[in-house]
Amino acid sequence: MRAPESVALNTRTFSPAYSSFNAQVLSDAGALDASFRTSLDRNMEAATRLESAYTYRFEDSSEQLRVGDAVSSSGMWGSTVRYGGMQYGTSGAARADVITSSDLATGGLAVLPTVADALFNMGGATLGPQNLSVTRAWRTGALVASDALGRSVAIDAPLIARTRLAEPGCAEVSIGAGRVRRDYAITSNEYGPTFANTTVTCGLPLGFTVEGHGEYLADSVTAIGIGIARQLGPFGVASLAYASSQTADRSGWYTKVGFEREGELINIALRSRLQSREFRSVDGLANDDPIMQRDLASVGVNVMDGARLSVAYATQVTWSRERMNFIALQQSLALGRGSLSMNAGHSLTDDLGSSVFLSYKRPFGFGLRRSLSSIEEFIPLLPEGPSFD
Q1: Can you list the pairs that 230-235 forms with residues at least 24 positions away whose Cβ atoms lie under 8 Å?
Q2: pLDDT at 141
Q3: Three-state DSSP state, 115
Q4: Gap between the Cα atoms of 389 and 385, Å rounded
Q5: pLDDT for 369 beyond 50
Q6: Which of 162, 268, 301, 369 is the most exposed place for a label (fewest CB within 10 A)?
Q7: Whole-number Å distance between alpha carbons of 241 and 74
Q8: CB-hemisphere CA count at 13 Å for 10?
Q9: Which strands, in side-by-side order, build the sheet including 133-136?
Q10: What pLDDT, on a 0 to 100 scale, did the predictor assign at position 350?
Q11: What pLDDT score does 175 carry?
Q12: H helix or E strand, kind and range, residue 173
């Protein structure tokens, strides 16, 4: 019998009450992954399976086939869920602003929220059916997501995901089908209704990127839409998305426009979302008060080498006229091998939501700090949760 080329066992989280492990067998053609959580306390429950899948990579191609548990693609506007089944394509990665931590338990259907979803649910509020709450680390001001079982992880994702421009042709595709995970990280093998989604991205003449995305959840909703993006010379990238949904008794529409520019001195990102009361996607089925409009804006300025100033503004209005908005400021300065940062935030809804954080970070060892754009560093800048009441 030929021995596998690589076998690895990694520990992602280790504590007496909760530990998570990932086992992996690698070969030239693919990888077999399995992850689970368990407790070192014998009186606690037995191990719970998180994910298991086999991924086959086609030779001389960027395409791959994944059989088992996967995270769905969402395109410019769609939902992201955990499901078990099949996923085929050039990329199965979720959009960059989706909170994809595999250590967080989600009650009910395993729908994954975006960072913007988390921000508008701060102050210990629950993120709908996901049973996740968002608070802030008192030492640094960074956002922390916690699940119903008390486990928490720092949110390491941008507020506004960058728009990807495709190369000429229609080589980027993701097709998935199976059943949505239910009570993920709470039970091992619970699956819900049938789910399917498809994302196809094409690079067209004149520099246009066109994306088609559709998603289906049995007996609940079907949604389909299109996204268009283009580089506007030296000014930046503009994008537009439109989608339509159909449930058993209603149909609705959704539109989203965006602009972003990255330069040596200034980085800018804008997103505006508008939808009808009747629009539903998989991630909004349980929402009794759907979003009417959500606007996100961010500006980052590189003041000098090693010094950066970032400003963010966000507002949201629901169909019951509940309004939430905030403005935030961050300034960072490189000092030797470390960095000094100041985070300040204020809710414009009332006068109770101001906060200021000062922190100094210095790495020990030889690891390199991941370089973030000004847009990505807006995440820890928000006011304290009570300001959103």
Answers
A1: 230/165, 230/206, 231/165, 231/207, 235/261
A2: 59
A3: helix
A4: 8
A5: no
A6: 369
A7: 12
A8: 9
A9: 133-136, 143-146, 152-154
A10: 54
A11: 95
A12: strand 169-184
Strand duo 191-203 + 82-89: pairing = unpaired
Amino acid at 161: A
User: Mean of the per-residue pLDDT values for the chain?
Assistant: 81
Q: Is 83 left (phi over 0), alpha (psi -120 to 50) or beta?
A: beta
Residues 6 and 32 sit within 8 Å (Cβ to Cβ): no
List, for residues 33-68, the tens digit of each pLDDT value: 888 887 766 666 678 889 999 999 888 788 899 999
- Sequence letter at residue 25: V
Inter-residue contact 290 to 254 (CB < 8 Å): no
The first and second tokens of residue 91, run together, are: 């990329």
Cβ-count burial 232-249 (b if 16+ within 10 Å, e if not)? eeeebbbbebebebebee
Cα gap 382→378, rounded to integer Å? 8
pTM equals 0.82
Strand partners, 343: 330, 357
Q: Return the higher-pLDDT residue of 86 and 185.
A: 86
Cα separation, 331 vs 319, whole angstroms: 35
Quick check: 82 and 112 in contact, CB under 8 A? yes
Count CB atoms within 10 A of the CB of residue 271: 22
- Look up residue 325 and give its two tokens: 């908005």
Which amino acid appears at position 231 of this protein? Q
CA atoms within 13 A on the CB side of 367: 7
DSSP assignment string, 192-233: EEEEEEEEEEEE-GGGEEEEEEEEEETTTEEEEEEEEEEE-T
- Per the listing, tokens 């960058």 go with 162
Contacts for 115 with CB less than 8 Å, ≥ 6 apart: 97, 98, 99, 143, 155, 157, 158, 159, 379
- The number of beta carbons lying within 10 Å of the beta carbon of residue 389 is 12
- Whether residue 267 is predicted with pLDDT greater than 70 in this model: the reply is yes
CA-based R_g, the chain, Å:
21
Instruction: Record the tokens describing residue 272, joined without a space.
Output: 């505006």
Helices and strands in the chain, H and E counts: 1, 22
